[in-house]
Amino acid sequence: MKSKQLFPGVFSRHALAYDRRLEQVMAHGEARGRLRVLELVHARPGMRILDLACGPGTLARRLAAHVAPGGEVVGVDLAPGMIELARAARIPNTRFDVMDIEQLSFGGASFDAAACGHGLQFAPDLGAALREARRVLRPAGRLAASVPVDTTKDLVWSLLDDVVDRWLGPAPQAADQRSTRDAVSDMERFRQAAVDAGFATADVESIDENVKWPSAEQFVSQFAGWWFYASRMEVIDDDRRQEFIDEAVKTLRVSYPGSFETTGRNHVLFAVA
Fold first, then answer.
1. Nearest residue to 105 via CA among 176, 50, 37, 48
2. Tell me: the pLDDT tens digits for 54-105?
3. Would you say domain 3-150+173-210+265-272 falls under CATH 3.40.50.150?
4. Sign of dihedral through CA atoms 141, 125, 185, 170?
5. Are 58 and 22 in contact (CB under 8 A)?
6. What is the pTM assigned to this prediction?
């Protein structure tokens, strides 16, 4: 299966769970990659900003507060369910459209800045996505984009994956995604991809994230907020899903009877047109 066949459906079906999980970590200041994107975009009154792979409007909501008066944030995403949820929020100074970030429908030099929070890794053609971002930016326009990168998993994720592998089938794979994920996982290749796309300057920084969870129950309750778990749970019935959840909670409680942290890493691209 290809990326554009797989991900829009999965993210649409689980848009609300994704939104709840992400708003929680954003509210606690723990989504450090995305928060760094907001800093680098440097939104100001009157700016027109493009939010690429906007999801339910997580970044757009925060950017919109800074572009008023006179500014606008336009969010685009290939998952209709995400766009529906973003529109339903009725965020002032925003609009949202279903759109492929590799084929933007906007004219050249339409935006002052562009942001992307954990979306570029889903583009099968990273170069096309970056070229389109460059095309729609005005001279000296800023692009800031964060992507999660695979690292050696901590004990929490390892314990969880042992349970997942026993109960759930394999995660669906997008056959056309490997080159993009390899590129964004390498800081120099990610930076060079932006330069090759026409950006005048580009840099990539590595940012670690620590997310605190008050309990195993609360952590496992967020399962549907991660597409790679949600997509695997869709194929089992309600009874088996509950049995799986119960075992996942029980397994984590053995090592973590109280609160605990999970760790992750992001690469954040900052490029200037």
1. 50
2. 999 999 999 999 999 999 999 999 999 999 999 999 999 999 999 999 999 9
3. yes
4. positive
5. yes
6. 0.94
